[in-house]
Amino acid sequence: MEQFILHFFKKKTREVDVQLLTAHFESVVGFEVVEEAKSIQYIYTHPRLGYKAAFILSKSSMVPDLVRLDPSYLDVNFRLELPLLTPTYVVKEIFQITQNLVEKFHLYIYTSLLEDVMEFKIETLTVLFNQSKNYYKERNPLILSSYQVVSENKATAILRYIDEAPHLQKYYEDYNIFVPK
After folding, report:
1. pLDDT tens digits along 136-145
2. Which of 35, 53, 57 is nearest to 44 (CA)?
């Protein structure tokens, strides 16, 4: 499956404290750290829904068209890879995690849909992700035929209920109200 790739940059420096970065991801629920010869992968698995995304720190740049970007922003060889068929409900949670990361490490973002590196804006990023997702769906109708398609609002409501059901069960248990699983 195709991925939405978001590259991270810093202004005037390439330095990222790998130990601090690893500690950051280890402190967030749902992350697993996988060290390989050429990269460190911080793999996020949604705790209740099971959708995955990977933050990857590699030894070399994977940014296409790097030479045309503003030279005051330097690639830190760090990116987010998010499957294009990830539901919007989960994407928003992953982008919230990304926003916290960007703020903590003073990062900027770039994707091939942008003209240049920019500050993180969750609304803009969500629009770009949805454009990529829709384009992917149009180009790959056979892949979509294996999915049960529901409206985005209905999918969000279903996923939110599944995600929040344990909290609802705990909250309403004192009131003797049954919350189905």
Report:
1. 999 988 888 8
2. 53
User: 12-51 burial, b for 16+ CB within 10 Å, e for fewer?
Assistant: eeeebeeeebbebbeeeebbeeeeeeebbbbbbebeebeb
Those residues with Cβ within 8 angstroms of residue 148's Cβ, 6 or more apart along the chain or in another chain: none
- Closest to 1 measured CA to CA, from 78, 66, 72, 53: 53
Please give the model's pTM, rounded to 2 decimal places.
0.90
Which runs of consecutive H residues, i.e. helices, occur in the chain?
Answer: 18-26, 88-105, 122-139, 141-144, 152-173
Among candidate residues 33, 40, 42, the one with its CA nearest the CA of residue 101: 42
The residues, any chain, with a CB within 8 Å of residue 123's CB and separated by 6 or more, are none
Phi, psi of 106 (to 5 degrees): 55, 55
| Environment class of 129 (CB within 10 Å of its CB; exposed 0-12, middle 13-18, buried 19+) | buried
pLDDT digits (tens, 9 = 90+) for 55-84: 999 999 999 888 899 999 999 999 999 999
| CB 81 within 8 Å of CB 3 | yes
Beta strand 39-45 with 52-58 is antiparallel
Measured CA distances, 62 to 23, 68, 84, 164 (Å) = 24, 14, 18, 37
